[in-house]
Amino acid sequence: MADNDFHYELSDRELAGRIWVRLRPYRRRIGWALTLLVFAVPFVNFHPLVWGFVADALVDQTLTSGVLVMWLSIMLGSYLIGIAAGAVQNYLLEKTGQAFVRDIRAELFSKFQEQSLAYHRDCRTGELVTRITSDVDAMEQSVLQGLTALVEEFVTFIVVAGMVLWISPMVGAVSIIPLAFAFIFIRKYNRRVKSLYAGVRKKLGNIGSFVQDRLAGILVTQSFGRRDHETEKFRENADHFYDSSVKASRLRNTYFPIVSVFGFINNVIMLGLGAWLIMNDSSLFSLGALLAYRGFWWRLQSPIRTIAQTSDILQRARAAATRIMELLDKPVSIKNESDARSLGSVNGAIDFNEVSFSYLQGKPILKQVSFSIKAGEFVAVAGGSGSGKSTLLNLIPRFYDVDSGSITIDGTQIKMVTLDSLRKKIGYVGQDHYLFDGTIWENVIYGDPAAAEEEIFSAAKKANAHDFILSLQNGYETQVGQNGVKLSGGQRQRLSLARAFLATPRILLLDEPTASVEPESEFLIHEAVLKRSRESGGTTVLVTHRIDLLRQAPRILFFDQGRLAADGAHHDLVEGCSAYAEAYLRWEVEEANQISVLR
Fold it and tell me: Domains in the chain, start-ordered, CATH in brackets?
């Protein structure tokens, strides 16, 4: 996450409350599962008593074949009942766990979609992916698997301790005392390991973020021959994760053996005290009781060991759950106002009124910008790098909110309408012309999922994309790959344009639509944009420094250092604005150089 993220911490009670809110829809299923768990434990653990009863009957020479068959039937029947109840309980909890994972991931993904561009600019995509995958898995393991194991072992301990005390209150009480010390060590371990596992989860997120970033830039890595360097950087991240994991492992393997020792002392006391009582012909203990105690010992020891291990899992998952809740609790900066209304049909008039904006406080990008664009007008936006051109486009659909001033569409402030209704009236084509992994058809229809086939073909034709699509072996069913890697830059841009045209927006925003495309595609894209303007297809705002588009644009807004320096047609700006004339001359030289290189 970004370095300037707000400090986030939840107490155990607060975290449990957040988790329970999301489990509440399944409370009936959880209730039945826990009921079955409590029901199953005594049946599964009844058989050592049978061993004791049979052994005492053998010693007393009172055991008959009928009594033996009775006890064996009781032992087998009780175990089968417990196993059946446990199987149903496990199924109910696993089903709940999968539903919980599904719901959390859907909630996280929805939150990611809702967050602003500023949020995604500051966050690392790889870490977000780690949180929605690895962290959610770890959280599910604790919430249901870990907690269920904890409850099961706790109930087992209570039931078995009760049986042990019932057989012999004195031996039972003395043998249970060492287990109290084991619980003390488990609690101490939990307090020490909590911060360690928070660091482990964070470093795992760093690895995910690094891998996602470097795989996305694999072309740059290979072109500069930096494979060994990047491998070493990855190893550094992996080493940090390794060091944190080893620290947690060292702590775990220091405390867990101590816990096991206390559990084994329980065994020593059972055998020693029980045998001593039998040797002294005490009526307080019998050989059958000793045999039953041997069967119960591992059921007393097992909960202690399992509780220690489960506590470790819970601490790992607590760190993961905290990271998840941090994302879910992160405020959404761009959202609907409480009294926002839906934006109806629009003509496409845009007004900027004293608009100022900055990404970083104290470093304004736009400074008191004011202008009006009439409905159906074609306006080009030009300026040097960092002058605020792309930012201006991003403010119209409220990808960012202005610091001061206001923006209106047909006289209505954009902050007073719902985001969905606003953005459905706007088509946006950026410089990166992102395509989703899938077919051409799926990417184009993204602009209007309800569009008919003819409408899709029409949008593709308007974007001058239909012919090249048909020239492909699979036509509209061609797989484009992640971000359209199987297509050229110009083809990707024309598909982006077709996607925007399919949405039939009244306002079309184009941010350098011909940046980094081949000359043939550039001409076709220019023609598509200009044709839409000639046919009065709506308002078009185009950021560009291509001289052909600037010459043909009826109106140009020229920005210089965040201010609107000039407003007019190309020939007027050349004559009346020296900054534009100098910039235009520079763009003309750059474009000529690019053409000569291509030739």
Answer: 12-329 (1.20.1560.10), 435-504 (3.40.50.300)
